[in-house]
Write a structure and sequence with these properties.
It contains seven helices and seven strands. The longest helix is centred in the first third of the chain and has 30 residues. The chain is of the alpha+beta class. The radius of gyration is 22 Å and the shape is elongated. Strands 6-5-1-2-3-4-7 form a seven-stranded antiparallel beta sheet.
């Protein structure tokens, strides 16, 4: 039993980490951790079954040795995870002064055509609440506190978009798959509106494409507290 439990734990950790690096689609945003955890649970179940099968093949002495080694590795893994968690807590939030003078905006990116069932269907940022949120395909909404660095970076990208002729997108005959809605105040200028965006539009307007990608990935690029409901 001990071998099966430690195998399940190690499978969960290894599977989640591997999925995060290799299997989570680009642009998953806040949905990425949930996808990685799903693969981790699958790996945990597979590891548990493998450990049970191995336990049947080992003699009493071999089983004790395997259980001891697996337990030591599992305890060491838990300790490392605990240390990493407590260290990361120190960078989850920023002092209010860090937001002083940063651009203020609300922006959302809504999928109008679902091209990938794993990607979030909507991503939005509201600097008034210092919050980013993504709607998962199952309807749950994952919210995270918006880091000051992210607000500054995305604000700068939106500033670049403000200088772009979005008529290229509006005049495009290509079918759109996303809708961008914004309201922002950058320096002394204010802007509000929406535009439907196609793959051709993103290709022709790389600055707009970079801003969209930043909005969708804000919860992944920097550590923040995430809550899904």
């Amino acid at each position: 039993m001990a071998l099966a439990l430690t195998g399940a734990l190690l499978g969960l950790v290894a599977g989640t980490a591997a999925a995060g690096w290799l299997l989570v689609p680009a642009g998953s945003g806040l949905a990425g951790p949930a996808i990685a955890l799903g693969w981790g649970l699958a790996a945990s179940a597979a590891s548990c079954v493998a450990a049970l099968i191995a336990a049947r093949q080992l003699g009493p002495r071999g089983l004790r040795r395997a259980s001891t080694v697996a337990t030591v590795v599992a305890v060491a893994t838990l300790v490392l995870l605990a240390v990493a968690y407590y260290r990361s807590q120190a960078v989850y939030t920023d002092d209010s002064s860090a937001y002083a003078g940063l651009p203020e905006f609300t922006v959302s990116v809504q999928q109008t055509v679902i091209t990938d069932p794993y990607l979030a269907t909507r991503a939005e940022i509201d600097t008034r609440r210092r919050e980013s949120a993504q709607t998962l395909p199952d309807g749950r909404v994952c919210s995270a506190n918006l880091r000051a660095a992210s607000q500054a970076t995305i604000g700068a990208l939106l500033g670049e978009v403000a200088a772009v002729d979005l008529g290229v997108c509006r005049r495009s005959a290509a079918a759109s798959d996303e809708r961008v809605v914004w309201q922002w105040r950058l320096d002394s200028a204010a802007s509000a509106g929406e535009v439907d965006v196609s793959p051709a539009c993103r290709r022709d307007l790389p600055r707009l494409a970079r801003a969209i990608a930043a909005v969708k990935n804000v919860g992944v690029k920097e550590q923040s507290v995430v809550a899904c409901k």
